[in-house]
Design goal:
Tumour Suppressor Smad4; single chain; 2 domains; Rossmann fold; eleven-stranded antiparallel beta sheet
């Protein structure tokens, strides 16, 4: 049980809706269920500005959008010491679904009752930039693997989609170079999940615990025959059975010697990594509304 305000009829909740997510019916449903909540609709480029303004007058900050919008709202909530209410409304809603919230009724029940949990927040420091992630962080080809897997999973099924995604990515890309534990290694990807993911393939699955204090780190090494290794890793399935994977759960991770131009991705946002990287956790750092009985 976490101390958050109960907000009958939504009084004190300011919900910022990312209109670019294309889910106006969620905003309408929220207005009907919580008539005293303030709902602010904006486009993505105005999202952070509206979230910051909302934080100045809210008892609880809300966001309706995908994982990228939720990431932005979490940062504002952390800086202002506010609990967060998350309504899934984007293409990817991994955090909301792992939280157990899939429709407005579930969220509204938690907000009115004052039911909430404290969840972990992953943090990264690279190239003078500090950021956070609620779902996943990665270096290398992981963002492309996720995009290709989403594209193919509806056609050929999840397991085969891993293989198709790996085959397509290996034709376009090449392994990155980084120093891990003092040794320079070629890597196709390095993935770090905020808490432990149950599905252990090339791409993350679902989490049962959002406050286990761990980073779920996985890597696919380049080595000899790097293209073969990427496809073989996808064919092998679970990381624990494959010689092409490495998997460890830690609280902190440091990597150096990262090649210039290496893509860094967190919760769907992509940028370039600096020459070094440090990951750690803010354990139970964010309070989030969630029904205690799902």
């Amino acid at each position: 049980m976490v101390d958050v305000p109960a907000l009958p009829r939504g009084h004190g909740l300011v919900m910022v809706v990312n209109q670019g997510a294309g889910t106006p019916e969620k905003a309408r449903a929220l207005r009907e269920l919580l008539p005293e909540a303030e709902v602010v609709e904006c486009r993505g480029e105005r999202l952070v500005t509206e979230l910051e303004k909302a934080a100045g007058r809210a008892l609880a900050l809300g966001v309706c959008g995908g994982d990228g919008s939720v990431n932005a709202a979490a940062g504002v909530a952390l800086r202002n010491g506010l609990p967060l209410a998350v309504l899934p409304g984007g293409t990817l809603n991994h955090f909301a679904y792992d939280l157990g919230i899939e429709d407005p009724k579930e969220l509204c029940r938690a907000v009115e009752a004052g039911d909430a949990v404290a969840v972990d927040v992953g943090r990264f420091h690279s190239g003078g930039r500090t950021g956070h992630f609620l779902n996943t962080f990665s270096l290398g080809v992981y963002p492309e693997l996720v995009r290709e897997r989403e594209r193919w999973s509806g056609r050929v099924g999840g397991r085969l989609a891993d293989v198709v995604a790996a085959a397509r990515v290996r034709r376009r890309d090449h392994p990155l170079e980084a120093v891990v534990e003092g040794e320079r290694r070629p890597l196709w990807l390095l993935f770090a999940g905020n808490c432990t993911y149950r599905r252990m393939g090339l791409t993350g699955g679902r989490r049962a615990d959002l406050a286990d204090g761990l980073l779920d780190v996985r890597a696919v090494h380049g080595g000899r025959g790097p293209g073969f290794r990427l496809v073989a890793a996808a064919l092998a399935g679970p990381l624990t059975r494959s010689p092409f994977h490495a998997a460890v759960r830690v609280q902190r991770l440091r990597i150096g010697g990262i090649s210039p131009g290496t893509p860094l991705a967190f919760d769907g946002e992509v940028t370039d990594a600096g020459p070094s990287l440090e990951l750690d956790k803010l354990h139970e750092g964010l309070r989030v509304y969630r029904p205690l009985t799902l």
